Amino acid sequence: MREQFGDHVRVAADGHVAIVTIDRPPHNHVSVEFIRDLADAFDAIDEDVELRCSVLQAQGKNFCAGADLVNRESAGGLGAVNPLYDEAVRLFSAKKPIVAAVQGAAVGAGLGLAVMADFRIASPDARFAANFVKLGFHPGFGLTHTLPRLVGPTKAELMCLTGRRVKAEEGLPWGLVDEVVPLEELRAAALRLAKEIAENAPLAIVSTRKTMRADLAAAVRAQTDKEAVEQGWLRGTEDYREGVRSVAERRVGNFVGR
Fold first, then answer.
1. Domain spans of the chain, in order of start
2. Is there a contact between 109 and 126 (Cβ–Cβ < 8 Å)?
3. Fewer CB within 10 A of the terminal residue: the chain, N end or C end?
4. pTM score of the predicted model
């Protein structure tokens, strides 16, 4: 299998493993179209009986630095029915396991994308951040459900209320990261784990994963509806405008609570 999905997603096969490459460097910013293309790729992988597991990797400096705030439309709609989150839910509906290879930043929606995967292999320079409050904004991409599920409610609240960057080594004991390897070994390590999964019986892999992830896609759908509502009204505040400016200017925001 070797296919292109849209302008920024490529899929190739290595035995029973699909290699999904995000190619929107250097920051691989999220957009509705990009996430739709990525969801299309995972749908195609689910339909290919020869493929049993995927590696999700990215070109460039960062795994995914979130939404491009210069292009406001990249964040999708503002109401409860949000085009970006519609596509994000499709990612959580994928049937086969996904191993993410994370370098550089996985920030905001990029953190949501990394957490969507079953496992995260990270390089030492990887950093994970739910930086929404620094933008005067509410977390999205289902992170208010998926992050507590992964690292526990206290660590998730710490990340969401401080917006701090969590380095790969710090995230390892939290369960945010499953393995830290040198950057030059990152893709090989992710592929190694994916192949370890893919050597097993394919129907059993899908069945076991479905049981263990339970109703994750439905839970993310319900949570993104709530997140989008909160994001909608916050987007109209002075603090949001100041947050976008302050993050762009790499300074602490002068927030006023309006």
1. 2-183
2. no
3. C
4. 0.93
- Name the average pLDDT for the chain: 93
Record the tokens describing residue 147, joined without a space: 């992050």
How far apart are the two ends of the chain, measured CA to CA in Å? 52
Report the DSSP beta bridge partners of residue 212: none
Residue 45 burial by Cβ neighbours in a 10 Å radius (0-12, 13-18, 19+): buried
CB 65 within 8 A of CB 27: yes
Q: Which helix (H) or strand (E) holds 206?
A: helix 202-213
Strand partners, 5: 9
Q: Give the tokens for residue 2.
A: 């070797």
pLDDT grade for 82, boundaries at 50, 70 and 90: confident
Rg (CA), the chain: 17
Edge-first strand listing for the sheet containing 119-122: 2-5, 9-14, 17-22, 53-58, 98-102, 119-122, 179-180
Report the C-alpha gap between 157 and 161 in whole angstroms. Answer: 6
Q: Please, what is the angle between helix 109-116 and helix 83-92, to 10°? A: 20
pLDDT in tens, 178-222: 999 999 999 999 999 999 999 999 999 999 999 999 899 999 999
Q: Put residue 40 in one of left, alpha, beta given phi > 0 → left and psi -120 to 50 → alpha.
A: alpha
Cα–Cα distance, 180 to 104 (Å, whole number): 12
Fold of 2-183: 2-enoyl-CoA Hydratase; Chain A, domain 1 (3.90.226)
